[in-house]
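Handout for the seminar on molecular recognition.
Each group receives one record of this type.
Step one: identify the two inputs.
Step two: read the structure output and locate the region that could contact beta-D-galactopyranose.
Step three: write two sentences on what you found, then compare them with the reference statements printed after the record.
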Amino acid sequence: MEKRLYHGAAFYPELWSSDVIAQDILLMKEAGINVARIGEFAWSRMEPEEDNIDISFFVDVINQLHANGIQTVMCTPTPTPPIWFTHGHPERMYVDENGTVMGHGSRQHACTNNAYFRKRAAIITEHIAKAIGPLPGVIGWQIDNEFKAHVAECMCETCKDLWHQWLQDRYGTVERLNEAWGTDIWSEYYHRFDQVPQPGAAPFLHNSSLRTMYQLFSYEKIAEFSDEQAAIIRNYSKAPITHNSSVAFHVDNERLFKNLDFASFDTYANFDNMPGYLINCDLFRNFKQGKDFWIMETSTSFSASLESYAKPHPNGYLRSEAVAAYALGAEAFCYWLWRQQRAGCEQPHGSVISAWGKPTVGYQSVLEVEQARKRIEPVIVASRPTQAEVAITYSDRSKAFLKTEPHRKLNHRGLVTSFYERFVDMGIHRDLTPEGADLDGYKLLFTPFLHYVSSDYRERAKALVERGGIWVIGPLTGGRTENHTVHTDAALSLELEQLAGVETLFTYPMEGTTTLGSAFGVSAPLSMWSSVFEPKGASAVGLLEQGLTPGKAFITEHRCGKGRIVMLGSMPTGEEGDLLLRKLIDHYAAEAGVTLRTDVTPGTIVAPRHTDTHDLWVVVNMNGDGGTVTIPVQATDALTQEIIQPGTLELGAFEYRIVQFSRQ
Ligand code: GAL
């Protein structure tokens, strides 16, 4: 199929009459919506009674959409099993960590590991795939909806049995599990796998290994369910399959997307949370390398439910979001939702069209997105996003470790986003790369908040260093084993410490200790659980002042092959801390020879793309204040063909430009 950019919306035809559906399709055409996502909550419409399955309503809608030039992403409806499945069957329901069994209603109320759920999910999916797979309007599939968004690890009896099986597969013998988890502590020792509890209600904290492993077990099971659904669809359709995920959910995205065809995410970041929006683009681009991602859901203006609502976007912002996404590797920019809900619990949520069929406050912005989409489409489809020189490792497995051990309420998403934000502000192009990603082509690697550094990861990072790259390790990296215990050969493991040429003398929380860290000409308070180093071959770059361990190092640097390994043992905080980190990033970006960076002003971004003959900068003002960037050599405006002279390029509020440089 010819490559194009999609502009879409979530559509719920099962909630409306045929007249409204016909009107909606006309209105979609007017608004420039060229793809609709349907079906993800419609199980009871498709199978009102057990085994009474009829997909024809959806076949008809998809055909109507297609006849009007609108393509479809079809979903499996598994987040909302109907009443015939749930009523009188508490054993099929999700059980939370306090042991509360969910009732019918809302969504994600069933246990996705329940054998009967899997059976019914497979049956309905097969019917859908058979009926809808052959339709010409279907360009993609979405499995379920936002796995584990509202729920986390299920504690039901089914999960308990599967957990025991998972442990057996992982450890082989219960003796190995006892050893790995240190179960002599608090008389936790187990004689058989079937004695190992789920980390449910308890008077005090559970064993760290138990909690983290239960999360990894849950990650694996939900990904297996996704695999199972995808395999069924593939029997009937060649269209690519995705899932609409997020960094906020209780899933391992890297594992989840392994057996899917493209990555997609939902985001409802507010206007004033630009990094919270962009981080998704810089991450999801890298779950399926070389493949465009989709923004499957975002609001036209504001998200809302009965209990709360977000701030509406300022006029102009939606278009900036869309252009930035397309430039950073999105093939589609889609809204939740097309027509405002008449019923349910999300009646107030922003949409394209109101429940009474009129434009909403976001409608004008949708038209602006469509104009921009048409304008940039030829340039975007003829180019590819350019790989960054700087990689920041992202790990959902680490998210599990941090959930078990949040220190003082540390939150993985918040930590990673604020670490990442500096790179955006500093105009450094960056990839958030999954833990298992290939590190070829990167010059500078940051590994923050990775509690367990696997030997596989270490070897890939070491190879990057040996060929001349710089690897910055920390903060909060390396201090735990695979089983969420503490290393006993050295604080951060002997292998890592020897590689980095350090010995970790102490690990302790720095907050409230008056410790200052001094490096790159800045002195800043330090925070978080920290590592204090004695160089053993490395040189000290940052030293501690005051506090408990003055004179010791918290940043070190060690030669390795043609490159260097930098240990960052603590988290500088406050304004000075931010400055110190920026100086560190700046220093090592220069040392590593990073060139893919611009002096773009904060609030404006540059997304680099390329063709065989040209480099492109898609420059977008996102904060509504306008901005500037220095153009190094004469260039062309790829949209107007006008010459752009070297020097300062100014952008107005929410303006975007595509600057084209010819490559000699
Ligand atoms: C998403 C979900 C949608 C809708 C939306 C509202 O998390 O997938 O169905 O609830 O949020 O913002």
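Reference statements: DSSP finds 17 helices and 31 strands in the chain. The first helix runs from residue 18 to 31.
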